[in-house]
Amino acid sequence: MGKRIYGLLGRRLAHSYSVSIHRMMGNADYRLIPLEPEELPGFMGREDIGGLNVTIPYKLDVMRYCDRISPEAREIGAVNTVICRDGKLRGYNTDKYGFEWMVKRAGIGFSGKKVLILGSGGASRTALAAARSLGAAETVVVSRSGPENYGNIGRHADVEILINTTPAGMYPNNLDAPVSVADFPRCAGVLDVIYNPRRTALLMEAERLKIPCAGGLTMLVAQAKAAAELFFDRKIPDGNIPEITGKLRRETENIVLIGMPGSGKSEIGKVLSQMTGRPLSDTDDMVSMAVGESIPDIFASRGEAAFRALEREAVRTAAKESGRIVVTGGGVVLDSGNYPPLHQNARIYHILRATELLETAGRPLSGDAAALGAMSKKRMPLYARFRDAAIENDGAVSDAAREIWRDFCENTCD
Question: 3, 59, 113, 378: which one is catalytic?
């Protein structure tokens, strides 16, 4: 295996999860293969290719180098998997299998539905083929400059399934969205092939509207399983898909801590970081470092509004990364705009502590019991809106940290 090349072929791959996925499937030699367009012909002519996954922007380009193309890949018009057999390159499309697995796990039915697909690249072709296979009554592909485009998309307000195959909302441009789900009042399902972040802005809007939805991580793992079967001509159990998806979510999702000032968030965050080996991001520390002042000094010299603006930027910066412990300031929930960046790739924990146990030293807004009581009354409903779970911190910090980790591991499965 080590004498042959296995990996993901694309252009910008730094934040891909494919290496982790294939190594979980037993391929220790799998690696990232970033290439510029002019490098592609030389690479595809190598004699030591074992198996490749192909991503943006080469799913169409690699077809010209394949000696054989599977009927499904030819029908779709895109290849995402290449293997070498007897010195010949064979092209396949396992994305369709992955897409249909994602649809099945999400419980979204296509039969008789009108489907709108955003984007016209290789992933769009896959989604189109899958939608038709799943019984869609009508499919519409929207692109930036085609006959069906974002300028006239309003004439398709009656769509029932919305699929994003564009990069809009993908890391590092988190929180971008190609359209608003609210513009499609009959929408009954939203799918986004993006997997980083876990919840794109499009998916979070679908969540708010209580519309069934799913992101691309399950699709990514499922198509990788099908590709690995082709690489080594062996069957891999379907149960590997949810198992690996769950492991990836545990590795990549953030743990976010919110709660009253003095509730112990910073101490719990440090213990969690040590316990898990995850990097720690403290948004208050980020603000202080950015301006070279302590939090009390910022409040005194610039005012709360200026601090909140700095905090908002720190939240967006910290929360777009993956696999972190993110500790927030006590007032982060005062700005509802902080919820989407925190929620996009995390499980949010509200740290509870009895008011009489809250620390007040150095707290610009909660320096006495009366101020704390008023603050608690105002903020508790806001914490409840942000949180996924609440954890008591009236005892040992290590106990709270262990409880958070236990809950996180139980609730980040596929």
Answer: 59
Identify the three-state secondary structure at position 14.
coil
Q: Which of 213, 162, 210, 171 is nearest to 194 (CA)?
A: 171
pTM: 0.92
Buried b / exposed e over 123-132, threshold 16 CB at 10 Å, is bbbbbbbbbe
- pLDDT per residue, tens digit, the chain (414 aa), is 458 999 999 998 988 899 999 999 999 999 999 999 999 999 999 999 999 999 988 999 999 999 999 999 999 999 999 999 999 999 999 999 999 999 999 999 999 999 999 999 889 999 999 999 999 999 999 999 889 999 999 999 999 999 999 999 999 999 999 999 999 999 999 999 999 999 999 999 999 999 999 999 999 999 999 999 999 999 999 999 999 999 999 999 999 999 999 899 999 999 999 999 999 999 999 999 999 999 999 999 999 999 999 999 999 999 999 999 999 999 999 999 999 999 999 999 999 998 877 776 655 555 566 778 888 899 999 999 999 999 999 999 999 999 999 999 999 887
Question: Where is 267: in which H helix or E strand?
Answer: helix 265-276
Rounded to 10 degrees, the C-alpha dihedral 126/127/133/135 comes to -170
Residue 230: is it exposed, middle or buried by C-beta count within 10 angstroms (0-12/13-18/19+)?
middle
Q: Is 18 helix (H, G, I), strand (E, B) or coil?
A: helix
| Known catalytic residue at 235 | no
Query: How open is the CA angle 293-294-296, to the nearest 5 degrees?
Result: 120
